[in-house]
Amino acid sequence: MAAPALERPTATAGTQTVTIAKALNLGLRASLERDPKVLIMGEDVGKLGGVFRITDGLQKDFGEHRVLDTPLAESGIIGTAVGLAIRGFRPVCEIQFDGFIFPGFDQIVSQLSKLHFRSQGKVKMPIVVRVPFGGGIGAVEHHSESPESLFAHVAGLKVVSCANPVDAYWMLQQAIECDDPVLFFEPKRRYYEKAELDLATPPAPLFSSKVVRPGSAVTVATYGPMVRTCLDAATAAAEDGTELEVVDLRSLSPLDLGPVFESVRRTGRLVLVSEAPGESSVTSEVAARVQQECFYSLEAPVLRVTGFDTPYPPSKLEEGYLPDLDRVLDAVDRSLAY
Asked: Is the per-residue pLDDT at 291 higher than 70?
């Protein structure tokens, strides 16, 4: 059964300044109000409101039968959600931290991603798996990883990442409406950054990328927590007269590379940025596709700024691991030097 259509608030809905965390909370609340088949489940999502308070107040307002505290068992959370989806529900599962997703990996890859295909389209899997991901919070092992490339590779899964409160609010509701399983990666070190949320502004399509800062010298494509870093780099570069065009990929599977191709054909240069290790990654795929589609427009090789191909380091070392403004600007300089 399809979810009710996503309502577009009228122009009188108003504008408010919210954090990404609050926008996600508002998006979940709107989905719970709109569709009684929407459920939220995960570790500490109920009475505690989640470790990042994303689900704060939802169990109180919607009840324990719709906002469920689960055992510490990610495989059980995903497996139970699969059964609920078969019965017509639309579960939203929270994975408490990115590195905790791996006990549920088999359920996601072997069951969640394949049941629609296995049943010849008879069984839909309208499940959202929310994953706070990335580093920058000074956490211990298994709390700062970026596993999005693992799931973007799996046929049958949709993978998206928000980068600001507006996208957080709308994209989460759109993902809950989707009849396909969606892994929803949230940049947890950006949870408390604020922006204006105008509820009267219609959302962009869920599986689309968009230019978030126009420019003419170099295209910089990124997603999730690195969008803010790249926007800061663009501001710094502009002081020296270099205008960077920043593209937020937003959807990692499927990829919407039309805006990237269009931008690269104008600038002739591309720098890709992500926290995840570079080898066999989302940035690898984007680089290959741009080379295929824009070869004669390129004035320099596609360059990448990523995390290193190592396990995520102890928190005292993460500043040296994570891409930062200086590393992005260095790649821009190298691209312009060709």
From this structure: yes
Tokens 């008879």 -> residue: 122
Q: Which of the 8 DSSP states describes residue 313?
A: P
Is 143 tagged catalytic?
yes
CA distance 70 to 17: 32
User: Which pLDDT belongs to residue 200?
Assistant: 82
From the candidates 65, 116, 142, 143, give the one annotated as an active-site residue: 143
**pLDDT tens sequence across 171-182:** 999 999 999 999
Nearest to 262, CA basis, from 233, 239, 294? 294
Omega within 30 of 0 (cis) for the link into 301 = no
What is the per-residue DSSP string for 32-78? HHH-TTEEEEETT-SSS--TT-TTTTHHHHH-TTTEEE--S-HHHHH
Distance CA 180, CA 157 (A): 7
Task: Indicate whether this model's pTM tops 0.85.
Answer: yes
Smallest CA-to-CA distance from 82 within 111, 103, 110, 102 is with 111
